[in-house]
Design a protein that fits this description.
Protein name: BatD family protein
Structural class: alpha+beta
Strand content: 35-45%
Number of strands: 30
Organism: Formosa undariae
Helix content: 25-40%
Radius of gyration: 44 Å
Keywords: Membrane, Signal, Transmembrane, Transmembrane helix
InterPro entries: BatD
Pfam family, one: BatD
Number of domains: 4
Number of helices: 10
């Protein structure tokens, strides 16, 4: 009777151990039917740790979160329990019935697969106002808002868009990532750098909220009419309080993924008025100062001066052209060098832009630089304004006379002087110099001459010494053999040395090097490279049996090491052993 009880107990124990050892790998979904505006959570759970996990393709869904990995270990009645889960959060792309295909994982050398799951996606559903529902709580307490400074600006007037994320006091945000970035195709845009996000207190629809400013952008509309600002969308991990409490009475939190969008905004851009628009208006909008300056007003012909045309202030500084200068033809003018010193903040562009001209007079005389006018649209008065520079007179005190201008005064009646070159055009070039004759030098009897004569005689003793040392080295048969063997080992093991640290590549290169060495030394083909054949050939060539055993053991190590763990230290040891063995064989072989 006792023996029967023992047999039953052993049987129960065996059944229990087999049950506990059974591998489970399955896919669990949060729901099999959902609206297109809802999220689907898929968990791939296993009770044994595995490798090479491959999820399904999720071709009919967008992965908005995951994979998130969680591992738990516990002891129940003295039995260890293990659980590992890969979680994904999916958003459906369209309505219909779809199949989540199999996921695979390798556990204990076996490949396990999940069962395919059918998912039905319907039209958008209205979510219940359930205070205990985490998705509903997240949607009611997280808001992304795009605040636009002005909804009806003028063409080329700066506006700002500030994206704020509002979070209620009882809700937390763990992380977020941008899904859709707005494209400002009809605007000149620049993002303002935000150094460190700061949590601030504010109100949203009359209720207290905390918020952070995620992005600030300055826009200059480049077209008139209704322009759209695309929405910014975020995928947010939200911490939502639940009805469960911990052992100290505090409410436990749960995490849900939520997509929030700032919504599309429409800006009505007004055209600049046609009434009063100056002919020289090039699109400047803002508040500006204008000035024209020269580096000097008195100079000689062939000297140069800089003429600087500068606009400074607040507005679309990078989006209009500076007025061009119109100078007398006797002043040679080069293409201007454009420079900008502009910074952009929430008020728009501020700074200055300028064109710097290099001017070179050709003749003696006084030349007026006429007044230059700059026009812009003033946003404060909503009218056009013009600023004119003062006339500047350039006095050229020295240089050739413009004879044409003197004999034909009518040539300057339009404010321009024709350029007529005469034989004195290059009179300003210096023709008298203070050059001194160079000292004559001869190669004969110079230091270089004597050195060239003596160096060949001095090289003769050095050549004799070198030749004697070479003869001694050639007579050293043993030493030459050692040097040749070491050089040969380095030659064949060069590729293996480059692959140190990469197990597979290193041992393939090492084995190839050993085979190539034997083929070169023993004059055999790859098909003859068996272990017994190698030992016999090396033994016939007079190689010690210990060296032969070392060589064959290295070959065996190359084959085994591909399938066993190896460190860089082990690889270095195998490399050194192979180098020394090749060197020994080359010294002993006959």
């Amino acid at each position: 009777m006792k023996s029967i009880k023992h047999i039953v107990a052993v049987f129960v124990l065996l059944v229990s151990s087999v049950t506990f050892a059974q591998v489970k790998f399955e896919a669990k979904v949060s729901k099999t039917k959902l609206g297109i505006n809802e999220r689907l959570r898929v968990d791939f759970e296993m009770n044994k740790d595995g490798d090479n996990f491959n999820p399904p393709s999720f071709s009919n869904f967008n992965v908005v979160g995951g994979p998130n990995q969680s591992v738990s270990k516990s002891w129940v009645n003295g039995v260890s329990q293990f659980s590992k889960t890969y979680s994904y959060f999916l958003a459906p792309k369209s309505q219909g019935t779809f199949t989540l295909s199999q996921a695979t994982i390798e556990i204990g050398g076996e490949v396990y697969k999940t069962t395919p799951t059918k998912i039905t996606v319907t039209s958008a559903v209205s979510k219940p106002r359930d205070g205990n529902n985490a998705d509903y709580v997240a949607s009611e307490n997280i808001h992304l808002v795009a605040e636009v400074s002005k909804g009806s600006p003028y063409l080329n007037e700066a506006i700002t868009v500030v994206y704020k994320l509002y979070v209620s006091p009882n809700t937390g945000v763990s992380n977020w990532r941008e899904i859709d970035n707005p494209k400002y195709s009809d605007f000149w845009s620049q993002n303002i750098d935000i150094k460190g996000l700061q949590v601030k207190n504010g109100t949203y629809k009359g209720e207290d909220y905390r918020y952070v400013e995620l992005r600030k952008t300055v826009l200059y509309p480049q077209k008139t009419g209704k322009l759209k600002i695309e929405p910014l969308s975020l995928d947010i991990t939200v911490d939502v309080p639940t009805n469960r409490r911990d052992i100290f009475g505090g409410r436990l939190m749960t995490q849900v993924h939520k997509t929030v969008s700032a919504g599309e905004r429409t800006i009505n851009v007004k055209p600049l008025p046609e009434t009063g628009r100056p002919d020289d208006f090039t699109g400047a909008v803002g508040e500006y100062d204008f000035k024209v300056t020269t580096s000097k007003t008195e100079l000689k012909a062939s000297e140069s001066l800089n003429l600087n045309v500068e606009v400074s202030g607040n507005g679309n500084l990078k989006l209009f052209e500076l007025p061009k200068v119109n100078l007398p033809s006797s002043l040679e003018v080069y293409e201007p060098e454009h420079s900008e010193s502009v910074r952009t903040n929430l008020s728009g562009m501020q700074g200055r832009v300028s064109d710097s001209y290099t001017v070179v007079p050709q003749f003696k005389g006084k030349y007026p630089i006429p007044s230059i006018t700059f026009s812009y649209f003033d946003l404060k008065t909503e009218s056009y304004k013009r600023i004119s520079s003062d006339e500047i007179v350039v006095d050229v005190t020295q240089g050739p006379n413009n004879t044409v201008a003197e004999t034909h005064p009518s040539a300057t009646s339009d404010g321009k002087q024709p350029v007529v070159l005469n034989k004195d055009h290059f009179a300003f070039i210096k023709t008298k110099t203070d050059l001194e004759p160079a000292k004559k030098s001869y190669f004969f009897k110079s230091k270089l001459f004597w050195a060239s004569l003596l160096i060949p005689f001095l090289m003769i003793p050095l050549a004799l010494v070198f030749r004697k040392q070479k003869a001694v080295r050639d007579a050293d048969v043993t030493g030459n053999r050692i040097r040749k063997a070491d050089k040969l080992a380095k030659k064949y093991l060069g590729e293996a040395k480059k692959a140190l640290g990469q197990k597979e590549a290193f041992y393939v290169a090492l084995e190839k090097a050993l085979h190539n060495y034997l083929k070169a030394k023993l004059n055999i083909e790859t098909g003859d490279l068996s272990k017994d054949r190698i030992q016999a050939l090396l033994n016939d060539k007079g190689v010690d049996s210990s060296v032969i055993s070392e060589f064959t053991s290295i070959l065996e190590s190359c084959e085994l090491a591909r399938y066993t763990p190896s460190t860089k230290v082990t690889m270095q040891q195998d490399y050194d052993k192979a180098a020394s063995t090749i060197s020994l064989i080359d010294k002993q072989i006959r």
